[in-house]
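User: Quick sanity check before I run a bigger batch. Here is a single chain. Can you write out its predicted 3D structure?
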Amino acid sequence: MKKRIEKLIEMIIVWRAGIRLDYAIGKADKARTGDRYYVMPDAFDRLIVMRRKGMRTLRRHRIMDRRVRMDDLLRESFYFTPDRAGNTAPPVVMEKKREMYLRYVLRHRHEHSN
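Assistant: Done. Predicted structure follows.
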């Protein structure tokens, strides 16, 4: 019985995380005016939408490590919009990024519950 309840809780957490990611993706797509926007977690594990200029500001104020580069942001983000030229990632990559976010949420949940 306990395993079923735990599985149900995990399913609800994944469902809610998917809704949060969809909302952040919608905000990124809506904000896009030509610049590429990225969906990333902040220090409190909330999803934020930022662009290159925001990353530079975070590095300048030492909130983000200065060694972080745009390639790191592209690789570690949970979603990114097309760039100015319209270049976007294939749907397979975007699906992998979604799975990456859901794994992140579950892993982080287990780290905080222990």
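The two ends are 21 Å apart (CA to CA).

User: Great, the batch can go ahead then.
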